[in-house]
Every structure is written in structure tokens, then in C-alpha cells.
Amino acid sequence: MRRSALASIASYIVETRGSVISGQTRDAALRCLFDLIVAAAAGHEDRGPLAVRRAVGLMGQGEVPVWFSGVASSPLGAAWANSAAASAQDLDDGHRLARGHPGAVVIPTVIPIGQAQKASWEQMLTAIVIGYEVGITIAAARRSYGNTGTWGAYAAVAAAGALCGTSAAVLEHALAIAGETAPNQLFASAPPPRDPSPEGSDVKEGIPWSVVTGLTALRLAEAGHTGPRNILESVRHYDLPDPIRFGGDAHINHVYHKLYACCRHVHAPLDALLGLIADHDLADADAITVETTSGALRISNLARPSNLTDVQYSIPYCLSLAMVRGQDGLMHLRQDVLNDHAVETLAQRVSLVLNPSFDARFPQETLARVTVRSRGRDVVSPITAPRGEASDPLTWCDLRKKAKVVSESLGAPLLGKALDDLAVNLSANRLTGLSDLVGCNLDQMAVHP
């Protein structure tokens, strides 16, 4: 009899959780760990994460740190709150084939569950790799696009199940429950034309709730609840290889990391424009034309966004912010980027056009070319891929600079020093300083040394 996809995935989790991660995969996992903590610090004070922390008592009491708050909750509550902070600013990592953000699901799941299970950091690092592998494998097999929340629960089950020592039989049901009860994101994930386009909100891609769904699914399965274990055999929804093969080049080795607090579709146009700004005087830009992909055209792209989520999903507004305020202002978005008349005026002069040759290479690549008309002449960028892709990854120095800019924007120099110390340790393969950092109160780190 043919082995089911979930049986193969459950076996992979059980067989891998006792291994020690090494080499390229270990370095990738350490980078993801550091980068995600920076993203969580950046989003800590945003409206959505604040609301989750106010509501976190719904998940019970416990002694697991809610990152950067100085308070504790249950493992489920901490994972929910930490994921909300990590995904708020859209600074978290992503994967090209998954077309989403595994880190904001997996790492906020692993650390609270690992702390509750008294797991070692080595065990947690292995669970991180497992969570990325399972989540990305399933996301990449979807026949239609779905935001991260639609597949993130699978990753949460895999990572948490690895740490909890859950049996393969129970994992099959947990994964099935997670897949069938995950956030559906029917409005936000809908293909164009969308009438109306979804209003920007703190729900975003449903990532924090997919963490809750995944962890709840695991507990339900452990209590005897069943799920449809043939869910991944649905040919309408999934196209998984038969057999599924694990153990090769891990998916975590192919994530991208972000330098701007916005949707990945915005990054290639931004990098193309910033290259032009570096080489030309574009102070009097009359118009900006962006050649891009169909994926970039499906986000909201408002010239006058009313909230930070809509800023994150607007190529015109983010390009105009870069022209008016410079690139560092895009690494951590604050409320003061809204209602900027100069930015809104320029954003209305940004045009987006589909480039069929770029679109043929999407989603494996997200390319853009930008033309700026200034003083009667056109300045054209090269065809540009976003910085931080797996093919040209950010260095540890790049990641440290990102942490520094975020810390300065938060007005927390002590946080900046702590993050830099952590980066030094992790880049030297030393798993030290993590627990103290995430357990601290961000407000107390705003004091100058």
C-alpha cells in the first residue's frame, strides 16, 4: 500500500529530531534565529502585538517569557504573542517557493515550547530546521496561492512535535487537524480581481493564529482527537512528490532575509530605485515606472495608505518614502510615515506595469526594473533582484546593521548592544545569551549605557 504523505512527514520528524544540525544548515538556522528576534523587537510596540498581549490571558497562565515584555504566559500564549510581534513589521524571513514566511511561525513556536519542555538550544535548533522543512515542503506543493497562515500550522505542529517527543501516529493526526482547521485567509489570499481589495489590518497573513491552531492541533491529537490523514492526497489542493524525500539540501538554506519592513514584492523595486538614487540626482522626479511581476500587482499598492499594513503592501508609497526619507526609514516603520504629503504626492506619480519576461521567472525570482523621469530625461535601472536572496545572502555584518537600525529607531541602545553581542555569539556558533535577551523588558532597554 502507498504510504500517505502525512505518514512520510511524521516519520521524518521522528527520525530527525534526535540529530544535531551542522554545516551550512546550522549557520542558516542561526541566521534565521537571530533575524527573527530582531523582527520581533521591531514589531513589539505595534498595535497588533499590543492587542495580543492584552488578550494573552485567554491562553492560560505560565512561566514562559513573552519576548521583550518582562511578563510570562503559558507556552501557547507566549508563542501567540511572540509570533504576533515577529510578523507585525514584515521584517521576518521568507522562502521563494513557499511564497510566505516560515520563521514567524516556527521560531516563536520552538522557543516557548522548548523552554517549557526544558529542551537544550541544540534540540531547539533541530526543531527549527524541521519546522521550516515541513512547512515549506507543504506550502510549495499547494496548487493555489495561500498566505502563510494557511500552511503555517503544519510547520508549528512539526516543530513542537519534534520537541515534545510526539509519536509518528499522533503526529499524523495533529498535522491533519492543523491543515484542516488553519486560518483560511479566503479574503486576503483570493486571486485577482478582488472587489474590494482587503483593507490593511493587523490580521495580515494570519501567522500568529496559525501558531495557535498548530499547537492546539498537537494537543488535541495527543488527547485522542483525529484528523483527515489523507488531506495532502487531495489533488485539488496539493501536488506533493511521490515519495516525499527529505534529507537533502534543507529548505532553511534557501530562505531570504529582509532589509525593509514591507512585503517582499516591494524589495526589488526598492533596491532598483536606491541604486538609481546612489548614482543620479533624482530630487525632481516627475514620474516613476516600475516593471514587475503579477505577484507584485496583486498587493494593494495604495498611494495614500491609512495604516502601516497598507504601507507594507504598497510599492508606490514605499518607493516614495525611500525618495523622501532614505532607506533606513524603511527598516522600521512607525506611525509618522503615514499622512506625509510629500510622500503621497510622489506616490501618485508611480506607475506599475507587468513585465511578461519577469513574470515568467516568478516565483523562483522576483525581478524589477525602475525608470525615473527627472528633468526631462529617463534614468533606467538594471534588472534587479532584491537583496538578501539565498543566492546572495546577507552577511552577519548586514544582519547586525539591521539590528542596529531597528534598535536606534526604537530608542533602545541597550537592546542594540545586546543584539550585537548575540550576533557575535551566534556567528561564532555559540548558543549563549538568547534566554536572557528575549526575557528582558524592552522599556528598560531604552536607558543609555
From TrEMBL:
Signal sequence bounds: none
GO molecular function: lyase activity
Gene3D superfamilies the record matches: 2-methylcitrate dehydratase PrpD
Domain (MmgE/PrpD C-terminal) ranges: 260-408
Domain MmgE/PrpD N-terminal: 8-234
SUPFAM superfamilies recorded: 2-methylcitrate dehydratase PrpD
Superkingdom of the source species: Bacteria
InterPro entries: MmgE/PrpD_sf, MmgE/PrpD_sf_1, MmgE/PrpD_sf_2, MmgE_PrpD, MmgE_PrpD_C, MmgE_PrpD_N
Start and end residues of each stretch annotated as Disordered: 186-205
Family: Belongs to the PrpD family.
PANTHER family (UniProt xref): 2-METHYLCITRATE DEHYDRATASE, 2-METHYLCITRATE DEHYDRATASE-RELATED
Protein's name according to its UniProt entry: MmgE/PrpD family protein
